[in-house]
Amino acid sequence: MSDIAGKLDTLQSIELAEGVEIRLRIAGPILRIFAWMIDMVVIGLTLLLLALVLEITGLVVGDNVIDGVLMLAAFVMTWWYPVLGEMSRWGATLGKKICGLRVMQPSGAPITWAQAIVRNFLRVVDINPPFWGVPGMVSCLATQRFQRLGDLAAGTVVVYERSEIVPQSSGPPPLQAQRPTVALRPEESRAIVTFRERSVYWSDARRREIADHLQVLTGKQGEAGVHSLAAMAHWLQEKR
Fold it and tell me: Quick one: which H or E segment has residue 12?
């Protein structure tokens, strides 16, 4: 059972620019189905309420106007309600918001209008009849980030809204401060301090790779070079 749960909702490691690795908690298909069902209820209730209001005023505006308004409202709610919801500050429709979900780019950035339109208009293939959700479910289960066809085409993912971006690894342990062996320019000092601050978001291999480029300063390679840079950064920040 735990293996099934891990398959449906897991943390996913994503590498960004400059080798930075983050983890986003990608939402699995089960909770997304619940969010979709809530959205269907919201759309249905909205159209029903509008129909009741128009029925009351039917003697004034006429049946043809009522039919036209209902058709237009059904089009807007079916096709544009998801787009507008995901482009809001929530980054989600009401159903996704209730379920604690959010649509974003794999980098963690908000989606664009083009991405919102593509992912939602492709629901006609992913979810709607005559396919009845089969392509979308198959795509979710077959991809590492649980992306349906619309997500793949738009380059989007659905994540837990309250999930935090956490470091890929803990970074080098605290060390004794070490004074640099050569005089450093201000920009070089800032670079070493930045290395220490950002290293917690990098993999061990990435930290060693960057530290090896500074062997001329530390005189060391691999983990020894990483620790030496961290110690120099500690001195620059707290002992200088």
Answer: strand 10-15
Residues 6+ apart with CB under 8 A from 20: 198, 201, 202
Higher pLDDT residue, 235 or 36? 36
- Give the H/E segment covering residue 157: strand 157-160
Of 83 and 212, the structure prediction assigns the larger pLDDT to 83
- Asked whether the CA dihedral 39, 86, 140, 162 is positive or negative, the reply is negative
Helix (H), strand (E) at residue 59: helix 58-61
pLDDT of residue 94: 96
Q: pLDDT tens, 84-121?
A: 999 999 999 999 999 999 999 887 788 999 999 999 99
For the chain, the C-alpha Rg in angstroms (whole number) is: 26
Tokens found for residue 155: 């380059």
Structural domain spans, the chain: 2-160, 169-234
Instruction: State how far the alpha carbon of 231 is from the alpha carbons of 2, 13, 176, 234, in Å.
Output: 41, 28, 6, 5
pLDDT-derived band at 168, boundaries 50, 70, 90: very low
